[in-house]
Amino acid sequence: MTNAMSKAELRARLDEIGVRPSKMLGQNFLLDTNLARAIVADLEPSEGDHLVEVGPGMGALTVHILESPARRITLIERDHRLAAELTGRFAAEITSGRLEIRQGDGARTDLLSLHGYGPVKMVGNLPYSASTAIISHFTAPSSPASRLVLMVQR
Question: Which of 13, 47, 101, 132 is packed most tightly, with the most Cβ within 10 A?
Answer without folding.
Answer: 101
